[in-house]
Write a structure and sequence with these properties.
The complex is a heterodimer of chains A (425) and B (506).
Chain A (H helix, E strand, L loop, with lengths): L1 H18 L11 E4 L2 E4 L19 E3 L8 H6 L10 H10 L13 E3 L19 H15 L2 H5 L4 E4 L12 H7 L9 E4 L14 E2 L6 H6 L10 E6 L18 H9 L5 E4 L6 H5 L2 E7 L8 H7 L3 E5 L13 H4 L1 E2 L8 H6 L3 H12 L1 H6 L11 H11 L5 H4 L22
Parallel strand pairs in A: 3-4, 4-5, 5-6, 6-7, 8-9, 8-10, 10-11, 11-12
Antiparallel strand pairs in A: 1-2
Chain B lengths: L4 H28 L1 H20 L3 H10 L30 H7 L26 H22 L7 E7 L5 H14 L4 E8 L4 H8 L4 E7 L7 H22 L4 E4 L5 E2 L1 H7 L5 E3 L1 E4 L11 H9 L5 E6 L5 E5 L30 E4 L40 E2 L1 H4 L2 E5 L44 H16 L4 H5 L5 H18 L1
Parallel strand pairs in B: 1-2, 1-4, 2-3, 6-11, 7-12
Antiparallel strand pairs in B: 4-10, 5-12, 6-10, 7-8, 8-9
Classes of the chains: A alpha/beta (425), B alpha/beta (506).
């Protein structure tokens, strides 16, 4: 009798083991039909994080700064609304009318300072970062003197948007940016930035990486029929040599873009050139792979465009940290190629198994993936604004011992940094 | 890259930063040791030499001294050097790894990625590898197949294409077009080829090249030579094919592909949407050869508003079928062709068969779900002329308009034939090979019926007159003259003969 019960237990155990396989942390679910096309669910490290709703999980207080920090700057140059650094402006607008906003700073979890540091543009549209440190410093002085919340935590429960090339290092040239380092006053605050590279001075622990701004309406306007067959294997449009600043190459993009050109310029599978076609967005929708190599900085709006148009991004930037890396499994969506492997790019791409490619395309087709890369006006659920709030919500609750200072304790050094930064703005 | 003055100043600002950095080490070095003075002197010498030579030769020197050919990097310059260079104003300096590390806080690991000048890696043979190109093409094909499966038609049904044909000069031309269109269709299909004058080997060998599933049948009577009779006969041949569909219980969508029509690939995707009977818009191409005959005002009108007539379903604003756009032949009746090789235009009938598609189950004898508006095929055995498939229906309003309610034209109707007496090599194989090449200008077609010569072809007429004239001149050497083959000496003798004759005449 006992033997029989034991045998039954074994059989049941074996049955259960085969029917319910072990759960892995990053598992993509079964194919779910969305509209007419099969997509796959993207599961982040904690489940379907992209679809989380931040409302109710955090409260944000928006400081009322004088308009010289935001509105007046924007009035001087309207191009700030359309260039790739426009996220700082749209985030401000979103927060002003969002449900997470609170007018009572006592109950706020996070504090937002609306200062547009990337809006001082040259005639060609490139932002000059030379006054940004002073602007930021002046804003922080203002909030620390008018409200007690900065001094309470020395900025540990404050967040700032710094979408410039190297984030809060406030310089377009990498060596200079590394030399300056992150603005000392921001060393305890949470930075929301586009720049992300592992083991780099300008990316600090706990930062949230966001995608650069790409105009959603413009991209929607160029959508073509999904039935159009994808006939371009690899597509790229952009500079290979920055002739003005680095004529021989080797400096720009760490030589990676020049390597792409020299190795693949007469390869029929690679549609790469510096020309500016009017059908750029349409061409991306007819391509299977889109190259996203680094430039002067590792990030670029190409990643956003590739995701929106369903083109698998081929990321050529060593140690890059991609947007919302804790919520989006980029390894499963894109192809990562080391800069030293660029000469073998064709071998690498042609040796990817077709099933893997099809799976990546299904993941890219997921609308929540596309939505998470955009900054639409008005805001929609699941878009980049909400992902930023989700990221902030995931950092809650604040560790009271770390965030709030004891009375009399001072960590920040208000006189650190280059002397030029200390001048009032 | 166009550089405006302001942009240039911005760039100069960027470049000045570089220069600032480069100057400092050398300035510091000068204070420190005689070795540094030596380097400064060398630097000055290099500057002078570059001023004279005009390019950055010091980089070249370093490259030649320190680069190794063993590596695959053609343009590698070692990172450890600090090369100073001043020519033309902009200075680029290499940063060495230790300098970067000093910037970092102690507890961070040294970055794998270094700022500074890197080599441009080029592999020894930077050209496409054919094996990889083929792999890539297979990937592309698979992706496109997946796209079709996702966004194209789900559960595609078989196609049954019905083509009436007969052996004549242009048969190969027309049938090849239809055949290649069918070969591109991504769905399963059966091609029923009905031939007038019996199934012939020529047609059989032609359609066998397609690799498609074909049913080749013949109808005993030959194709009539009057266009009106020919339209009637084609309808009869199509009914014959429909009987085959009924008898063999073929399942799918029946479409009528006349051999001289042109079909676009979107047509085959659109047809899959039909439930029972569908109608499409057909563009009618009536080729007008006699433009010169029509009055000037007509020509101008045509030029202003060149609209080709379209036959097909007509819908109201809520996309419901309300009527038919048909072809009105009356204004063109005088210019139309009667015989097959007439020079006029060939006019279609009111509604061509080609613009309709049927579900093959409608034709089956004992199909339980057959709708009551479908007449039985047996009723049409003795009927002389079935003008369009609408006659097979009791109620024409159930027809489904396809192609966004007839707004898209996906097929075009055309009838073009060669002269009845035109000769073509059987199977279009020239065997035995031609020995004599005769310029076509000099051979008048025999037995031209004179009524076919119009005033328009005055050039042609002159040609003929010219041809008639010339033989009088050099009649004797005409045959030899025409053989302009490789034998040169013969040509020379011919010419000497002609010149002799000319001198004689002169």
């Amino acid at each position: 009798m006992k033997m029989l019960t034991n045998i039954w237990r074994l059989i049941l155990f074996g049955f259960l083991c085969t029917v319910f396989p072990s759960m892995e942390p990053m598992r993509t679910g079964a194919i779910k039909l969305h509209r007419t096309q099969p997509t796959e669910r993207i599961s982040g490290s904690a489940g379907d994080v992209l679809d989380d709703d931040p409302v109710g999980r955090l409260k944000v207080f928006v400081y009322e700064l004088p308009s010289k920090y935001n509105k007046k700057i924007l009035q001087k140059d309207q191009r700030c609304l359309t260039h790739m650094f426009a996220a700082e402006i749209f985030m401000h607008r979103f927060l002003l009318s969002s449900a997470v906003r609170t007018l009572n700073p006592e109950e706020a979890d996070w504090f937002y300072t609306p200062v547009y540091t990337t809006c001082d543009l040259t005639p060609n549209g490139l932002p000059l970062p030379f006054k940004s440190p002073r602007m930021m410093r002046s804003a922080i002085q203002l909030i620390s003197s008018n409200w007690p919340y900065w001094n309470r935590s020395e900025g540990a429960d404050h967040f700032f948007l710094v979408p410039h090339d190297f984030g809060a290092c406030f310089h377009y040239q990498e060596e200079k940016a590394i030399e300056r380092g992150i603005l000392p006053l921001l060393q305890r605050a949470t930075l929301v930035q586009t720049f992300g590279q592992r083991n780099h001075v300008c990316l600090k622990e706990g930062s949230i990486t966001i995608p650069p701004y790409a105009p959603p309406q413009k991209m929607q306007a160029h959508l073509i029929d999904e039935k159009t067959p994808r006939s371009i294997f690899v597509y790229f449009r952009g500079l290979f040599y920055d002739v003005g600043n680095d004529p021989e190459g080797g400096y720009y993009a760490r030589g990676a873009r020049a390597a792409v050109w020299e190795n693949f310029k007469d390869n029929p599978l690679f549609d790469v050139s510096t020309k500016h076609p009017t059908t750029y967005y349409e061409d991306m929708q007819r391509a299977i792979f889109c190259l996203c190599p680094l430039g002067w900085a590792p990030w670029s709006p190409r990643l956003v465009e590739a995701v929106i148009f369903g083109c698998i991004p081929v990321i050529i930037a060593d140690d890059i940290v991609l947007p919302f890396a804790d919520a989006i499994p980029w390894e499963e969506i894109g192809v990562f190629v080391d800069e030293k492997d660029v000469p073998n790019l064709d071998t690498i791409l042609t040796s990817i198994p077709v099933e893997v490619i099809l799976r990546k395309q299904r993941l890219l087709a997921n609308p929540s993936m596309k939505q998470a890369m955009l900054f639409p006006q008005p805001a929609q659920p699941g878009d980049a604004f909400h992902q930023v709030l989700n990221g902030l919500a995931r950092k809650l609750p604040h560790d009271r011992s770390m965030v709030y200072l004891k009375p009399g304790q001072k960590i920040l050094n208000w006189t650190a940094g280059p002397i030029g930064d200390l001048k009032p703005w | 890259m166009k550089l405006s003055a302001l942009h240039q100043s911005y760039l100069n600002r960027r470049n000045n930063i570089f220069r600032g950095q480069a100057v400092d080490p050398s300035a510091d070095g000068a204070m420190k040791s005689p070795a540094a003075v030596f380097w400064l002197a060398l630097h000055g010498l290099c500057c002078l030499v570059s001023l004279i030579l005009g390019f950055r030769f010091s980089r070249l020197v370093f490259f030649l001294l320190f680069s190794t050919s063993a590596t695959t990097n053609l343009y590698t310059v070692p990172l450890q050097q600090v090369a100073e260079e001043a020519s033309g104003g902009s200075v680029l300096h290499f940063s060495s790894t230790p300098a970067v590390n000093q910037e970092l806080p102690v507890n961070k690991t040294a970055p794998r990625v270094v700022v500074g000048r890197h080599g441009i890696r080029i592999r020894p043979w930077p050209h496409p590898n054919p094996v990889e190109v083929m792999k890539a093409h297979r990937i592309i094909e698979r992706v496109q197949r997946e796209q079709r499966a996702q966004f194209g038609v789900k559960n595609p049904r078989n196609l049954i294409a019905v083509t009436p044909t007969y052996v004549r000069t242009f048969q190969t031309l027309h049938l090849t077009g239809v055949m290649h269109s069918l070969m591109l269709v991504p769905y399963d299909l059966v091609w029923i080829v009905v031939e007038a004058g019996g199934a012939s080997n020529e047609t059989a060998s032609l359609i066998a090249k397609s690799g498609l599933t074909t049913i080749h049948t013949g109808v005993k009577e030959r194709m009539p030579s009057l266009w009106a009779d020919r339209h009637r006969f084609e309808a009869k041949m199509r009914l014959h094919a429909l009987k085959i569909v009924r008898d063999r219980k073929l399942d799918g969508i029946v479409m009528f592909m006349d051999d001289s029509n042109m079909h676009s690939m979107e047509l085959f995707d659109e047809i899959q949407n039909v439930k029972w009977v569908g109608a499409l818009s057909v563009g009618i191409l009536v080729h007008s050869t006699n433009v010169g005959e029509s009055s000037l005002s007509d020509v101008q009108k045509e030029a202003d508003n060149p609209v080709i007539p379209v036959q097909g379903p007509a819908c109201n604003s809520s996309n419901i079928l309300v009527g038919w756009h048909t072809f009105n032949p009356l204004p063109l009746k005088e210019k139309s062709a009667n015989h097959i090789d007439d020079w006029g235009m060939v006019l279609p009938r009111k509604l061509e068969w080609a613009g309709f598609v049927l579900n093959s189950r409608l034709l089956w004898k004992d199909f339980s779900d057959k709708p009551e508006w479908m007449k039985d095929l047996i009723l049409f055995d003795e009927v002389d002329d079935v003008e369009s498939p609408l006659l097979l229906l009791k109620d024409a309003s159930i027809v489904e308009p396809l192609g966004s309610c007839g707004r898209q034209v996906m097929l075009w109707w055309l009838r073009v034939e060669a002269r009845t007496d035109s000769k073509f090599p059987p199977g279009w194989v020239i065997n035995p090979p031609l020995e004599i090449t005769v310029p076509s200008k000099r051979t008048p077609w025999p037995d031209i019926p004179t009524e076919h010569l119009t005033v328009d072809n005055s050039i042609g007429a002159q040609e003929q007159i010219g041809v008639v004239k010339r033989p009088a001149k050099a009649k004797g050497s005409r045959s030899k003259r025409s053989s302009r083959s490789r034998r040169k000496h013969e040509a020379r003798t011919v010419e000497t003969q002609v010149s002799e004759k000319q001198t004689k005449q002169n």
